[in-house]
Amino acid sequence: MTGRRPPIIGITTLAIEAEQNPIPPRIGQNQAYIRGLVRAGAAPLMIPQLADASLVRAIYEQLDGLLLPGGEDIDPARYGEARHEQCGRVSPERDEMELALARWAVEDGMRLLAICRGIQLLNVALGGSLYQDIAAQIPGAERHDWYPGYPRNRLSHEVAVTPQTRLAALLGDGSLRVNSLHHQALKEVPPGLTVVARAPDGIVEAVEIADHPFALGVQWHPEELAEGDIRAQRLFDALVEACQV
């Protein structure tokens, strides 16, 4: 085999518990994330939920980049709040592992793309907080939880991208329409994270770290759009390209 090897991009997983089907507990991740990374030229590596931080670190040290995907709500205790009645299912084990991975990636300059839960996780990892339910806690907000019962690639609202940012360089200035599959959102954004896109109702839709080689988070789900949308795929391409610098 000749040539440069594909960058290894770690992607965290979720636990799949047996409910109605008599199957053993499993771990996994939505295929759309994997396909987006493969189209970009990466070798995806799924990271299981592990309680042993030394094992997580051993995997982390083999990676060129990290993708933090969507999933369950983050335990409000992680950002010092009591649980709201509309807060959904949480996974303490996943929170613990992903918070460590996010902090390591920021500290080490590892290239990082965070999607939906991922942008929220990144915000919490750096000291921020979340609205636990948009409808209950943000009067006048638009609907953002277009799930279940709707196509995951449904374009639900506009996002205004801040000019002269990394995100604008990738997607262009102005606005774009995105899908929207979340009921929580960023509230307090910590120093070091820069808001670079918002929905028409003011909800934070993207953040980045200006002095990091590549650290970008988006609230929408580009993996569900990327097969037929060049700009959505561009986010995965940019992550992989950054890993090759």
What does this structure look like?
The protein has helices at 31-39, 53-60, 92-108, 117-125, 134-137, 166-171, 230-243, and strands at 8-12, 14-16, 26-28, 43-47, 65-68, 111-115, 130-131, 157-161, 174-178, 185-186, 194-198, 204-208, 215-218. It is an alpha/beta fold and 245 residues long. The protein has one domain (8-243): Rossmann fold. The strands form three sheets. A nine-stranded mixed sheet has the order 4-1-5-6-13-12-11-8-9, with helices on both faces. A hairpin with a 6-residue loop joins strand 12 (204-208) and strand 13 (215-218). Helix 3 (92-108) packs across helix 4 (117-125).
Key terms for this structure?
245 residues, alpha/beta, Rossmann fold, nine-stranded mixed sheet, two-stranded antiparallel ribbon, 7 helices, 27% helix, 22% strand, globular
Write out the CATH superfamily name: Class I glutamine amidotransferase (GATase) domain
CATH class: Alpha Beta
Sketch the topology as an H/E string, one letter per element: EEEHEHEHEHEHEHEEEEEH
Give the strand tally: 13
Structural class: alpha/beta
Name the helicity range.
25-40%
Q: In the CATH scheme, what's the topology name?
A: Rossmann fold
Mean of residue pLDDT values = 95
- The best one-word shape is globular
What composes the largest sheet? Answer: 9 strands, mixed
> Termini separation (Å)?
21 Å
